[in-house]
Amino acid sequence: MFARPGAGSKVVSLIDPNASVLSFFDVRWGAIEATFSSARSWVSVDAKPLVPPEFLDPVIAAPRLEAYDAQGQLLGKKLYRALYGALAWGSVETLRIDAPGIARVRFSSQHYTGSAAVYGLFDDLRFSNEPL
Q1: Does residue 28 sit in helix, strand or coil?
Q2: Which of 8, 23, 104, 109 is the most buried (most CB within 10 A)?
Q3: What share of the chain is helix, strand, coil (3-state, %, to 5)?
């Protein structure tokens, strides 16, 4: 993965436009974790689900974002909302968590044995401008 400042002062682009490897993944290959030097009040990331061309039903996994405090306690999680088959499925959705004291976030896509792989493509990690 790749990170560089994006359009805003608190936006990080996660995809290297010159990458020669695939930039989508699911939990079988891990997650991206971002740790903040000071706590934040909100964090978001753009997520897009992808299925491989040879996928089989059912399609039930989804990209997700999780937020944790400095002690590692889960503050919240957000799943991609559109269900497979809906018109919105496959479009980019901003996953956002609002919670005081966000010290780190993790994002990846779920994986369930016996169902189709759903990979997550993530970009534009954003967070509140003012530390708590």
Answers
A1: helix
A2: 109
A3: 0, 50, 50
Residue 29, SS3 per DSSP:
helix
Which tokens hold the place of 78? 């957000």
Identify the residue whose tokens are 């909100």: 42
**CA 61 to CA 12: how far, in whole Å?**
25
Q: Which two tokens stand for residue 19?
A: 């990458």
Cross-strand partners of 47: 93, 122
Structure tokens at 67: 């937020």
In tens, the pLDDT along 38-81 reads: 999 999 999 999 998 877 788 999 999 999 999 999 999 999 99
- The answer to whether the Cα torsion of 72, 93, 12, 63 is positive or negative is positive
Are 26 and 94 contacting, i.e. CB atoms less than 8 angstroms apart? Answer: no
Fold of 25-127: Immunoglobulin-like (2.60.40)
Full-model pTM: 0.81
